[in-house]
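Open question from group meeting: does this chain pack into something compact, or does most of it stay loose? Before anyone orders reagents, we agreed to write out a predicted structure and look at it together. Recording both the input and the output here so the notebook holds the full record.
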Amino acid sequence: MFILNLTYTAPLDRVDALRPAHIDWLKDGAAAGYLVGWGRKIPAEGGVILATGERAAVEAFAQTDPYFVNGVARFEVIEFAPSFLAPDLPALAT
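Structure tokens returned:
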């Protein structure tokens, strides 16, 4: 499992202009089975995305994010092996 830690590198007005394309990208990632959750950081300095799959594929998909492509965010890929998941969440471990 992976955490994609996004950090904005541009002013929020530039980030917000790309938000519709970013949301479409998130939905495409969910449909493809890579992305299983996401949300904006508070304060609004970036976002967190939960992902599954092979690391190389997740990293390659992350590089297609409109935020990354247009230089308004950078991301860090953090891989972890869940030792515990609440009973509602076992599917995330795949």
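Observations to bring back to the group:
The mean pLDDT is 92.
The first strand starts at residue 2 and ends at 8.
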